[in-house]
Design goal:
By secondary structure, the chain is of the alpha/beta class. The protein has 18 helices and 31 strands. Helix 3 packs antiparallel against helix 6, helix 12 packs across helix 17 and helix 16 packs antiparallel against helix 17. About 4% of the residues have low confidence. The structure holds oxalic acid (OXD) and manganese (II) ion.
Length: 620
């Protein structure tokens, strides 16, 4: 069905909107139409938004390569993007954000549900009408003299029944370029919206980038988002955290699936069998590195396939297993620390066709960051001559945006419409002490408690103090679009629908000794731990039952060829019941914040966990 109101639409559109496409309709003869005609609902919302924001020009993005190149060139000409060394980094550009706009702003991010308890203690809440009033006041006239871009996008493979679409209206061409890389963007998404007859509305303006006039508001009951005053990825690329996690987790709850902050990776053993694993780690805790892992030299015949590095949408399948799709099409990864030893795949992936944000530059215009191990910075991330007295050369949360297809380990199943079957779900955090290298939950309900109890040191991915341990259940603290108590209840319900649920594990790559040295080498060597998990899923690997779950004995983990002192391995696999009793007591205090909404089954799991580490049980 095409829109009736053509003259009004056409008069509101300029620039790229003249792009013509041909669509074939089942019931009508061949028709030729412009992109704006594909969905009346989108067109009406664009008109309404333009009336509020008063842009000088409206551009409907078709998602073509040509459009991308033109827009990128426009930003280079306007000195908003810096082209990098074409010989070493072909088609790469650098973007420098405002120094006060370099990370997600959790304190300015709200979930606006009619009832505050639906947003829960885990979210900042604002009454929806008040939130709209506040945001509309900011948006009124904010695009005067600017271009309004209409960015239709699809989260997930365009053919997948599990995918969901949205439209972002933005005045930031940098956002448009990023959305093109991170999502299936443009005409094909709008065609799907016309069929689906529903889409998430995301309105974004960089405003004046004033931290005092910056808000990221979510209206899950209306499937809409309003984001003002920031151009940073997680605040501004609305398909990512805002849609694919906060709004999607709300939708997933009512539709019986899970939207999670998880990488998805396939591990192929030398017999050619592939197990898919989804892992939830907090921001900047190594999801991208694990998703692109290169097997250690001694693991001949093992291969690793990346499906996604940040978000998983998980659906119970008809065979009672859990299936995952990656809603994204690109990576928005943390740059510092990336080098051929830590993550050769990422290093290769970002050599060309990459947007770098807030990295430093070498004398010959190559991108540079801490941990690169080659070259020298001469210009820092703010464009100043590099002076160590000013801090790191690249911002600790500097990022790359790159198409997933460029990854040498990109899986051919990354676009599979029904996703991949998941053998194991893994939670993890960045903990200097306490949490062992790996443990396996006793069953799904115990795994939900393990996920709910995740705590991790904060990182530079969000503004605020770094290195402070906080509760980050399922790595979703900043992203769950509703009350965590209801979210855990939903996890328990999803598990109950699965005949063959994934095994649930917890890992900690970040355990340190008293002198502050990491006990575990991490990176490629993490495959040794994944191997134990996979073999547990296959019923092959041995484990010992400990008060906190099943763990490998030192001999069960393949550490051959590793320079790992036996006392360090013992420390990595040790469980101190006294410290765990304290931990579970603190988890109990945390759960108490959610009051009577906490599912009884979760309380029961906690009571069992406490009992297993109780002093009486462990005395004598
Ligand atoms: C991200 C984050 O950008 O979690 O993925 O902050
Ligand atoms: Mn993330």
């Amino acid at each position: 069905m095409l829109c009736g109101d053509l003259p009004a639409l056409l008069s509101s559109s300029h620039g790229l909107s003249g792009f013509r496409i041909i669509i074939i309709m089942a019931t009508a003869p061949l028709q030729v139409t412009t992109i704006e005609e594909l969905s009346c609902e989108v067109a009406a919302w664009v008109r309404q938004t333009a009336a509020l924001t008063q842009p000088a020009k409206i551009v409907w993005c078709d998602g073509s390569e040509d459009e991308f190149r033109r827009l990128r060139q426009h930003l280079v000409d306007a000195k908003e993007l810096i082209p990098l060394n074409a010989a070493t980094n072909p088609d790469c550009v650098l973007y420098r954000s405002a120094p006060s706009d370099v990370a997600r702003v959790e304190h300015l991010t709200f979930v606006c549900t009619s009832a505050p308890e639906d947003a829960g203690p885990n979210n900042h809440w604002m009454e929806p009408r008040e939130a709209h009033r506040k945001m509309d006041a900011l948006f009124r006239g904010c695009m005067k003299g600017r271009t309004l871009y209409v960015v239709p996008y699809c989260m997930g493979p365009i053919e997948s029944p599990y995918s969901r679409c949205g439209v972002e209206i933005t005045d930031s061409p940098y956002v448009v370029l990023n959305m093109k890389i991170m999502t299936r963007m443009g005409r094909m998404a709008l065609e799907r919206i016309a069929q689906d007859k529903t889409f998430v509305k995301g309105l974004h303006s960089t405003g004046e980038l004033d931290p005092e006039r910056r808000f990221i508001m979510h209206f899950p009951e209306e499937l809409s988002i309003k984001s003002f005053g920031s151009g940073y990825g997680g605040n501004a690329l609305l398909g990512k955290k805002c849609h694919a996690l906060r709004i999607a987790s709300w939708q997933a709850r009512s539709e019986g699936w899970l939207a999670e902050h998880m990488l998805i990776v396939g591990i192929e053993n030398p017999r050619g069998e592939v197990h898919y694993i989804a892992c939830a780690f907090p921001s900047a805790c190594g999801k991208t590195n694990l998703a692109m892992l290169i097997p250690p030299a001694s693991y001949a015949g093992w291969k690793v396939w990346t499906i996604g590095d940040d978000i998983a949408w998980l659906h119970p399948g008809p065979d009672g297993r859990l299936y995952a799709i990656n809603p994204e099409a690109g990576y928005f990864g943390v740059v510092p620390g990336t080098n051929p030893q830590t993550n050769r795949n990422a290093y290769e992936t970002i050599r060309s066709h990459t947007i770098f944000t807030n990295v430093a530059l070498t004398a010959d215009n190559q991108p540079w960051w801490e941990g690169l191990k080659e070259g020298k910075p001469v210009i820092d991330w703010q464009g100043r001559p590099y002076d160590p007295a000013n801090g790191p050369a690249a911002h600790p949360n500097s990022r790359f945006t790159v198409a997933a297809e460029q990854n040498p380990s990109f899986s051919k199943l990354a676009d599979a419409p029904m996703g991949v079957p998941i053998s194991a779900l893994v939670f993890g955090g960045r903990r200097r002490t306490l949490a062992p290298l790996v443990m396996q939950a006793r069953n799904w309900a115990h795994g939900v408690l393990v996920g709910a109890g995740v705590a991790s040191e904060t990182t530079a991915a969000a503004t605020g103090a770094v290195g402070v341990v906080r509760r980050d259940p399922m790595a979703m603290k900043p992203f769950a679009g509703y009350n965590f108590a209801d979210y855990w209840a939903h996890w328990l319900e999803v598990g109950a629908k699965l005949n063959a649920p994934p095994q649930i594990f917890h890992v900690n790559w970040f355990r340190r000794d008293a002198a502050g040295h990491f006990l575990w080498p991490g990176f490629s060597e993490n495959l040794r731990v994944l191997r134990w998990m996979i073999e547990r899923c296959e019923g092959k690997a041995h484990a010992v039952e400990t008060p906190i779950g099943f763990m490998p004995a030192a001999a069960d983990l393949d550490t051959s060829g590793l320079d790992l002192a036996p006392k360090n391995l013992d420390a990595l696999l040790s469980v101190d019941p006294v410290l765990w009793h304290q931990e579970f007591t603190e988890i109990g205090t945390y759960l108490d914040e959610y009051g009577a909404r906490i599912p009884a089954a979760l309380r029961q799991e906690l009571a069992g966990a406490l009992q297993r580490v109780s002093p009486q049980k462990n005395s004598g």
